[in-house]
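ok here's the first one, seq then C-alpha cells
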Amino acid sequence: MKISIITVVYNNEATISSAIESVLAQTYKNMEYIIVDGGSTDGTLQRIRSFGDRIDILISEPDMGVYDAMNKGLAQATGDVICILNSDDLYQHEMVIERVVNKFSGSGCDAIYGDLVYVSARNVDRIVRYWKSGSCKSNSFEYGWMPPHPAFFVRKSVYNQYGHFNTMLKSAADYELMLRFVYKNKISLAYIPEVLVKMRAGGLSNFSFKNRFMANKEDKVAWEMNGLRPYIFTMYLKPLRKVMQYFLRPLPDNTIGIDRF
C-alpha cells in the first residue's frame, strides 16, 4: 500500500522543518511526500530544499489559499491513501503511518481516524487541548462530532469518487469534505484510539474569536452545500465539544501508541 503525505505551507520557516522531519522519520517507507508552497517569501523554501530528494514533489507557486494548495497536492498524489499534515503539525511518533496502514489492511475500510492533541507553539511537549475522537455513529455529525482533519486518512479512491476540497469555503472546507464523505456518502470508517498528530495551537479556524465565529458560520453553509439540514442545536454542539477538549488529557500509554489494535 502506497501512502501519499501532503503538506501545504506559506511563509512558515519556523515550523516546517519539524513537520518534514516527523514525516521522514516514519518507519513505513512506501510513501511519497508532496509539499505545496504558496510562493513563500521568507526562508521556508530554503528549509524545504535542505532535505534534498527526500521530498518527492515540491510545488512552489501562488495559490488561492490553503484548500486550493491541498487540491494541488491531491492532483499530484499517486498513493492508495492520502494523508494531509499541516506545516504547523507533526506526527506523534515514528510508527503512525505504519499503524494506519495496518488498520487499513485489517479493516478494509475507506478511511481511518485517530486522536489529536493541541500543543504549545513554543513547546510541543506541553498539551493545551486533547481532541479525543471516540467512535463514530451514523448520526454523530448531527451532534457536533467530527474527526480531527490532520488525523483523518482517506483512500484516494474516495477523493476520486466524491471530490476534493471546496475552495468557496475559507476555513471550513475540511469540515465540509468530511461531512460529505462520512455523513452524506456513508464511507466506512475505522478508529485508532490513540494520539496520532500534534497540532500547534493557533491555526486558521481557532486563531481568534472572530475566526471561530466565521468558521461556525461556514459549518452551516457546508450542510447547505450538501443539501443537508442539521438540527438547530448541531451548530452549538460543535464548538461546545471544542471547549470540553480543554478538560481532557490523554492516558500515558496513549502518547506512544502500544497495542491499540
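and now the second one, same deal
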Amino acid sequence: MNNIVEYQFLRPRDMTARRDAAPVAYIGLGILEWHGLHNPLGLDGIKSNGVACYLAERLGGVVMPTQFWGDYRSPYADVEFDSDFKPDFSYPENHFDHTPFICEYMGVARETYLKDRERSKQYGEWDLWEKLMVRTLFETETLGFKAIVLLPGHFHLIAASDRAMERYYSEGGKCKVLNLNEFAFTKDDLVGDHAAAFETSMMMSMCPELTDINELDSDLTKPNIGVIGLDPRIHASKEFGDRILDEFLLCATAFLKENGII
C-alpha cells in the first residue's frame, strides 16, 4: 500500500511523522442501511472514509477508523421510507412506501426492524452514539492531534455530531473540531441525497468497484427502491463526484488554515 494515511495501518514512526507535519485527524461516520440495489449497504461510512483519505492525501494528517455502529436505529432507510418521508431533496415520484420492497430484498421481516427501533428508543435514541463520539474525540486528542474533522455520511448524524462536539467542549476538549458535511456546501447544485445522483457519484469517483448502476431497472419510468433524490440512472457520474470532492477539499482547507494547522 502506497501513501498510507489510515491510523490502523501506520507504524508509530510513520503516524507521528504525519501527525507532526499536520496535526489533524479525520473521522468518517456512517451507519449500515439500504442505499439502493446499486450501492453497498455501508455507503455512508465508505464515502466518509473515502473523503477522509482524499483530504489526508492532499492536506496531510491521519485518518482514524470509521465509526459504523452505535447509531439510533429509527431514522434509517430500511424502515424510514414510507409515504410520509419527504426530505427537501426528495421528488413526488419518491413518495410511496419503499419499506416492503426493501424488507423483501433483505429477507428480513419489517417487525424485526421495528422491534430494534423501539429498543433504540429505550436506549436513549442518539445518547449512546453521542457518548461514544465524545470518548472518540477525547481519545483522538490524547494522540497529539490539534484539530479533528468529522465527516458524517448519514443525514441524521449531522445534528448528533454537533451535540457530541458540544459535550466534548463542555468537558474541556481542546481540539478544534469541524463537522464537515455536504449540506454545508454553498453551490446550489451540490446538495446531498440518499443513494441518488449525489451519493452514487461520490462512489463512482472514489470506489467505482463498489457501485453498479446496471443493478437498477433500465426502464426509467420505474422508480428506484430506497433512492431519494435525482435519478442516478440519469444524473450520476464520476465527474459529478469529482466536483463534490473538490468542495470538501475547499471547506477543509479553509478550516485548517484558519486554525493554523496547515
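notes on #2: The first strand starts at residue 24 and ends at 29. The chain is about 45% helix and 10% strand.
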